[in-house]
Amino acid sequence: SFLIGAAKLVVVVAIFLLTFYVISQVFEIKMDANLGHIFARSALDAAARSTKPPRYKCGISKACPEKHFAFKMASGAANVVGPKICVEDNILMSGVKNNVGRGINVALVNGKTGEPLDTKYFDMWGGDVAPFIEFLKSIQDGTIVLMGTYDDGATKLNEEARKLIAELGSTSITNLGFRDNWVFCGGKGIKTKSPFEQHIKNNKDTNKYEGWPEVVEMEGCIPQKQD
C-alpha cells in the first residue's frame, strides 16, 4: 500500500509538473529568467541604497551646521507654476498646497525655533499695496521672512513697501521691475544685507518664457536667532 501511495504521489506530481509546463509554455512564463531578474533587481536596489547620496532637509545639496535652519525656495514659472518655499523640510508654500498667488508670496518663520508663523500672498499687479504695507509693518523682530514672486510682483510696489522690504535685508527690491523673478530670505531686525537673494530681470531678448524670465531658485542655511 505504501508503494501504491508513493506511485499515486509520483503521478500527481508528474501531472502537476506537466500542467505547469503547459501553462508556462502558453503564457511564456520564463521562470528561471524571472527569478534571475528578481535577484538581479534586489542586488541592484541594495547597491543603489548603499551608494545613494544622503537626503538633506528640503532637498538641499549639503547639510546645514548646527543652529541653522535649512531652506530652499523658487520663484514662480511665468504665470503657470507657483513659487515654492520650504524651511526645515516643511513645504510652507507651493502650488500643490494651493496657498500661492500672483504677486509677492511671503512666509514667516520663528527665528529661534524654525516654526512656521504665517503665509500670505499680495497681488502686486491688480491688487492694492496698502494691505501688504500693513503686513510688513506687523512682522515681529526676530522673524525670518521669505519672499518669492509669481507672475508679476512689482507693478503696485511703492517706495514705502520697497523701503520696508529693504529693511528686512533686501538689496534687489529697489530695482524689482514688472515680471522680474525674485526670491529673498531676510529677517525683521536684521542689521546687515541678507546674503540670500536672487533676482533676474524680465528681458524679452533673454527670457526663457515668452513674457517672463526663467525661474530663480535658492537654497541655504539660516542662522538661528540667538538671545
Automatic annotation (TrEMBL):
GO terms for molecular function: carbohydrate binding. It holds the Pfam family ILEI. The chain crosses the membrane at residues 6-23. GO terms for cellular component: extracellular region. Residues 102-189 form the ILEI/PANDER domain. It is found in: Secreted. Keywords: Disulfide bond, Lectin, Membrane, Secreted, Signal, Transmembrane, Transmembrane helix. Its main location: secreted. CDD domains: ILEI_FAM3C (cd13940). InterPro entries: FAM3, ILEI/PANDER_dom, ILEI_FAM3C. It comes from the Eukaryota. Belongs to the FAM3 family. This is FAM3C protein.
